[in-house]
Specification:
- Strands 1-6-4-7 form a 4-stranded mixed β-sheet, with helices on one face. Strands 5-9-8 form a 3-stranded antiparallel β-sheet, with helices on one face. Strands 2-3 form a two-stranded antiparallel ribbon.
- It is elongated and about 60 Å long.
- The longest helix has 12 residues.
- The protein is α+β, with helices and mostly antiparallel strands and 204 residues long.
- The protein has 2 domains: 131 residues, no CATH class; 48 residues, no CATH class.
- 33% of the residues lie in helices and 12% in strands.
């Protein structure tokens, strides 16, 4: 699972082999082998801190958020994982300065630190290049909510309302964006942003 951009290499294209965070889950106790059952029992006997509170409980299954989720058994996250993944663009929910938008080449599930995007009216590579440009950064900031500390927070509704180009409006400029993305995808975010200038969108 893609946990956060901080856990990934400093480039915009993410490959499955870049990911070091894994999810443990099974649909039932019977589906577990002996080693997995030992792991679950160990987790149920561990002392765990409750997030955001000065409180500890015995066992991950006793955490309030897991009890509210109502999973049976508590480690069955099949439904959540099926909802995630399968989308090629990962848009960060929060940003302090620049907000690099990532290409998810393996369509790997991610945490709620990202919004998963599958564009319909523009190719993924063209949209990725736009969103990682200064124009895209402006579109994200205009759509997001800014907190007093300077943090920008983007929710799904705001992301849908973002001002982004369509392939029909871009015309030949869409191909320029796609070519620019192939050159920029393996670069660090700051360098990638400099690859797209206003002249790149001529013909839009």
């Amino acid at each position: 699972m893609i946990h956060s951009s901080r856990s990934l290499p400093k480039r915009l294209r993410v490959f499955p082999e870049d990911i070091s965070t894994f999810v443990f889950w099974a649909e039932s106790w019977d589906a577990l082998d002996e080693q997995a059952r030992a792991y679950v029992l160990r987790m149920q006997a561990s002392e765990v801190a409750v997030r955001g509170k000065d409180q500890r409980v015995i066992g991950y299954h006793s955490l309030p958020r897991l009890q509210r989720a109502g999973r049976t058994p508590w480690f069955n996250v099949t439904k959540e994982l099926r909802r995630k993944g399968g989308r090629p663009i990962l848009l960060p929910r929060r940003a302090y300065s620049r907000a690099p938008v990532l290409e998810n080449t393996g369509l790997v599930p991610c945490t709620d630190d990202f919004l998963e995007v599958c564009p319909r009216r523009i190719s993924p590579s063209a949209l990725l290049m736009f969103l990682n440009s200064s124009f895209g950064e402006l579109a994200i900031r205009l759509a997001a909510h800014q907190y007093s500390g300077g943090v920008y927070n983007l929710n799904p509704g705001q992301a849908k309302a973002m001002a982004v180009p369509t392939e029909a409006r871009l015309g030949a400029g869409a191909r320029s964006l796609e070519r620019a993305w192939e050159n920029a995808a393996l670069l660090p975010p700051a360098q990638a942003a400099r690859r797209y200038r206003p002249s790149s969108a001529r013909g839009a």
